[in-house]
Design goal:
The chain has 274 residues and is α/β, with parallel strands linked by helices. The protein is 38% helix and 18% strand. It has nine helices and eleven strands. The strands form three sheets. It has a seven-stranded mixed beta sheet with strand order 4-3-5-6-7-10-11, sandwiched between helices. A two-stranded parallel ribbon has the order 1-2. Helix 2 packs across helix 3 and helix 8 crosses helix 9. The chain starts with a helix and ends in a 5-residue tail after the last strand.
C-alpha cells in the first residue's frame, strides 16, 4: 500500500503481487496479479451459504493482509444472511493462539474463518483443533503453499479454502484454459529449483509475463505501457485468466479460484468446484 502512493506519484506502471483490493481501487498506475481478497471472499461466502453456515467467527492477521477482512465478510455475506459473531487478531509472528481460540470457542460459531499466512495460519489451525472446536474451518488464499501443510500437519485435514488452480494442477480438467500454463510453470520451476512453487511464485510469474507482453507491444513510454497492460484480455496465467480494463487493474473474477480441502495432508478439489 505504501508503494502504491509512490507509483501513482511517479506516474510509472507498477504490478503488485499482493491481494488487497485497495491496492488497485481507483488506481491509475498500479496493477496486481494476486486474486483480490473480495473475489476470494465471494468464493468462500458461496460455500458458506451452500452449507448453511451463517454465524461466522474470524481470526485474522493483524497486518495489512488481514485488514478489513471481518467487514468484507459481513458486506459480501449480507445477502446470504451471514453475520460475523466474533473477531480475533493475531500478530504475523504469533506462536500462541490459545486466547483467541478460547474466545472463538465461546462464541459457538457455525464456522470459523482464519485469515493469515504461514506459519501463523498453520499454528492457528493447530490450536483450533487442539482446543476441540468442532465448527468447520475456512482459511484464506494465503495458505497456498507446502509450508502450510508441513506446519499444520494433520490439523489441516478437512479445512476449506478458495485457492488458485496451481495447487491442484493434476486434478484440473483437460480443457481448463489454465492447465497448460500451470503445468508448464510447475515443470520449469521444479527443474530449476528442485521443489514445487508456491502460489506467490505464480503471482510473480504472471506479473512478469504481463509486463513483458506489454513492453513488447508498447515500449517503455509510461502512458503507452499502462494502456498496454490495461488491454490484457483473456490471457491465461498461473493465477487465473486475466482481462484488465481501465477500471479493473486486477483482471480476475472468483472463477480464478477453486474450493479445495485437505485430505491426508494433500490438497483436494471439492466436488463441483472445478
Amino acid at each position: 500500500m505504501a508503494m502504491r502512493t509512490i507509483a501513482e506519484k511517479a506516474k510509472k506502471p507498477m504490478i503488485s503481487l499482493a491481494s488487497n483490493q485497495k491496492l488497485v481501487s481507483g488506481a491509475t498506475w498500479v496493477f496486481k496479479t494476486a486474486q483480490n481478497d473480495r473475489v476470494v471472499m465471494e468464493r468462500l461466502v458461496g460455500d458458506m451459504k451452500a452449507n448453511g453456515y451463517k454465524n461466522i467467527a474470524v481470526a485474522r492477521d493483524a497486518s495489512g493482509f488481514g485488514e478489513g477482512i471481518p467487514e468484507l465478510l459481513a458486506e459480501v455475506g449480507k445477502d446470504a444472511g451471514i453475520k460475523v459473531v466474533q473477531v480475533e487478531k493475531f500478530a504475523p509472528d504469533a506462536t500462541d493462539f490459545t486466547a483467541q481460540m478460547v474466545n472463538i470457542r465461546g462464541a459457538k460459531p457455525d464456522a470459523t474463518l482464519i485469515w493469515g499466512i504461514p506459519p501463523a495460519a498453520s499454528l492457528a489451525q493447530v490450536a483450533y483443533r487442539q482446543l476441540g472446536i468442532k465448527a468447520p474451518v475456512y482459511q484464506s488464499h494465503g495458505i497456498g503453499n507446502q509450508v502450510f501443510l508441513d506446519t499444520a500437519k494433520g490439523s489441516a485435514d478437512g479445512l476449506r479454502a478458495a485457492l488458485g488452480r496451481m495447487l491442484v494442477a493434476g486434478q484440473l480438467a483437460g480443457n481448463d484454459p489454465q492447465k497448460p500454463v500451470v503445468t508448464q510453470f510447475i515443470s520449469d520451476y521444479k527443474a530449476k529449483y528442485g521443489n514445487n512453487p508456491s502460489t506467490f511464485a505464480g503471482h510473480a510469474y504472471d506479473g512478469f509475463t504481463i509486463a513483458v507482453a506489454a513492453l513488447k507491444k508498447a515500449g517503455t513510454d509510461p502512458n503507452k505501457l499502462r494502456d498496454a497492460i490495461e488491454s490484457t484480455s483473456n490471457s491465461p496465467g498461473v493465477s487465473g485468466v486475466f482481462t484488465m480494463t481501465p477500471t479493473d487493474h486486477s483482471g480476475l473474477t472468483k472463477e480464478a479460484l477453486v474450493m479445495v480441502t485437505v485430505e491426508n495432508g494433500k490438497w483436494k478439489v471439492l466436488d463441483g468446484s472445478k
